[in-house]
UniProtKB/TrEMBL annotation:
Residues 5-234 form the ABC transporter domain. It holds the Pfam family ABC_tran. Its EC number is 3.6.3.-. This is Daunorubicin/doxorubicin resistance ATP-binding protein DrrA. Keywords: ATP-binding, Hydrolase, Nucleotide-binding, Transport.
Length: 308
């Protein structure tokens, strides 16, 4: 089965010569959640804008559901739902009317049962008769999601959907996203909250300076690039690391009671030899703890390497 979103060498160069997209290649499978991560100015919003028909690419091509985003604009746009970063809503309109109007824009007939389902799903049903200006920032963000879903898109772009939303509302939205996925909706998510990608994404794409650095299954990425840290608690403080342990590049805490050792999970760890050497040097252990790199640490390291 071909990918539902197929991007080939997509480019965007502005009149001043700035290259926002430098030959993007990306294939997104139907029903998956892809997290698009990158620093500010990396090209995330430009890529989404190009796929949604908001900005015109200057090179390459892209298809959504087999339709070209330029020659088949109407077909692709009808398949796409977009939740933008900006809270662009009519402040004096009611929630229900705002969402219903969006469905009409796509030529869809009235469906009050669907509207109720979406508003309930987003905890907006009790606010349906409120004017937009009466809502909190988090509730306005939910209205944007409702507007994006009301024409029943197959592909949903979420551009920083939980920006400015408190933790509780953010987790509620994660549940909404998971439910959409269970109904076959493909979701492309850009976010600054790395834990968001770590919690709900199937795959991770990292973009920097208009180029895709990698696209990989989240679990495989964390396994391949993640590093583990071994923290060793000592019974008695030491003033320095013995010469016999210099090869391990250990870090000694200021108090002298903890040693930290980082190792690559894909190589021989050397932990057994390390512990044996500690015992040989007469250093008694109180406890040991291990932790693995988070997705945020992996992402920061990748971008640092690219910018170096």
């Amino acid at each position: 089965m071909p990918p539902i979103v197929d991007v080939q060498n997509l480019q965007k160069t502005y009149n001043d010569g700035f290259q926002a997209l430098r030959g993007i290649n990306l294939a997104i499978e139907e029903g998956e959640i892809l997290a698009l991560l990158g620093p500010n100015g990396a090209g995330k919003t430009t890529l989404i804008s190009a796929l949604c028909g908001i900005t015109t690419p200057t090179g390459g091509s892209a298809k959504v559901g087999g339709h070209d985003i330029q020659s088949g604009y109407r077909e692709t746009r009808s398949m796409i739902g977009l939740v933008p970063q900006e809270l662009a809503l009519e402040p004096f309109e009611k929630v229900m009317n705002t969402v219903r109007f969006s469905r009409g824009l796509f030529g869809k007939g009235r469906d009050d049962a669907l509207l109720e389902k979406i508003l309930r799903q987003l905890s907006l049903w009790d606010k349906r008769d409120n004017r937009i200006r009466e809502l909190s920032g988090g509730m306005k963000r939910r209205v944007l999601i409702a507007k994006a879903l009301v024409h029943e898109p197959r592909v949903l772009f979420l551009d920083e959907p939980t920006a400015g939303v408190d933790v509780e509302l953010r987790r509620d939205m994660w549940e909404v996203v998971e439910d959409l996925k269970s109904h076959g909706v493909t979701i492309i998510l850009t976010t600054h909250y790395i834990e968001e990608a770590e919690a709900i994404a199937d795959r991770i794409a990292v973009i920097s300076k208009g180029e895709i650095l990698l696209v990989e299954d989240k679990e495989a990425l964390m396994k391949r690039l993640g590093r583990k840290t071994l923290r060793i608690e000592l019974n008695e403080p030491v003033s320095k690391i013995p010469d016999a342990l210099k090869d391990y590049e250990l870090e000694l805490c200021p108090e002298g009671l903890n040693l930290t050792y980082q190792y690559d999970t894909q190589k021989r760890t050397g932990i057994t030899r390390l512990l044996h050497t500690l015992a040989k040097e007469g250093i008694a252990l109180h406890d040991i703890h291990t932790s693995q790199s988070s997705l945020e640490e992996i992402f920061v390291d990748l971008v640092k390497e690219e910018m170096a």
